[in-house]
Amino acid sequence: MKISIVIPNYNGEEILRKNLPKVFESLLSYKEGKVEVVVTDDASIDGSLALLESLKSKINSSYSNMGFKIIRNEKNLGFSSNVNKAVKNASGEILVLLNTDVVPKQDFLIPLLSHFSDTNVFAVGCMDESMEKHEVILRGRGVGVWKRGFLVHSRGEVDKTNTLWVGGGSGAFRKSIWDRLGGFSELYNPFYWEDIDLSYRALKSGYKIVFEPKSVVIHEHEKGSIKSTYSDFEVKTIAYRNQFIFVWKNTTDLDLQLLHLLWLPYHLIKALIKKDWSFLIGLIKAFILLPKIVKSSFNLQKLFIKKDKEILEGFRNEN
């Protein structure tokens, strides 16, 4: 089985210098087929490309079982578009998405890939040893509930294998199904909600997604491009906008659609009282995209075979 490791980058020179050699080391134990690493650079203005070119010659001469591709964007596209471009240039049957600040442990691939013997499995998530304020938090499994007109998602306990989504920074995806689903929705650019959206669409289309606790990665949460490029207000606004996009794009249960509309005045009044301008601007930005959202929703419904409430049934006691 051929594997493509997909690593999106934007101004990550120092993180790449630190972590990319470790990624290659973690792949040495895979003997079941070819491995390629595809790095897409989203128009970085640091020394990322020069570093990648220097690493490419070393890696191609040192690892006979691996290939290394560098894809360069002429302008900054955003996370979804950057990953989608990498996937188009990937030749593996299975895509393993890793963020630049994620380092897989040795042998993480074997348990991850074992689930793909089931042809209906679309994605498998890794156990994420997340380094947060000098503490390790185990992440990688997600749960959710419909509440006050929105899908509210949260971290799930890692003692189960069902999950609401597989993270776009540490997970494996079957390329044939990725292509059928259309990959990450580029409506979510520049970031946030794209992996939850794709996983949710896969579940509604009848595919399986799994959390694998034996496939462990270390996530150090280094200061990345989001914090260095966007203010906290901008990040919050984008998150609100994308929360609206998700509901308008994916919800097909009529009662949930009505509840969303009924709760909207409450959220608007609350935002005005609290002067939460990011919520209001996020709503306006989502409304501007409404024609594209409606078009996307219409196309998606051709694939959906499950209702919204069916998807969250397995997480009822965890919220």
Task: Describe the secondary structure blueprint for this structure.
Blueprint: E1 3-9, H1 13-27, E2 35-41, H2 48-62, E3 66-72, H3 79-88, E4 94-98, E5 102-104, H4 109-114, E6 121-132, E7 135-139, E8 142-147, E9 150-155, E10 170-174, H5 175-181, H6 194-204, E11 208-219, H7 225-229, H8 232-250, H9 254-274, H10 277-288, H11 290-300, H12 308-312
Helix pairs in contact: 1-2, 8-10, 8-11
Describe this structure in words.
This protein has about 325 residues and is α/β, with parallel strands linked by helices. The chain folds into two domains: about 220 residues, Spore Coat Polysaccharide Biosynthesis Protein SpsA, Chain A (Alpha-Beta Complex); about 80 residues. Helices cover about 45% and strands about 25% of the residues. The chain contains twelve helices and eleven strands. The strands form two sheets. Strands 1, 2, 3, 4, 5, 6, 7, 10 and 11 form a nine-stranded mixed sheet that branches. Helix 1 runs parallel beside helix 2, helix 8 packs across helix 10 and helix 8 packs across helix 11. The longest helix has 21 residues. It is globular and about 60 Å long. The model has no long low-confidence stretch (mean pLDDT about 95).
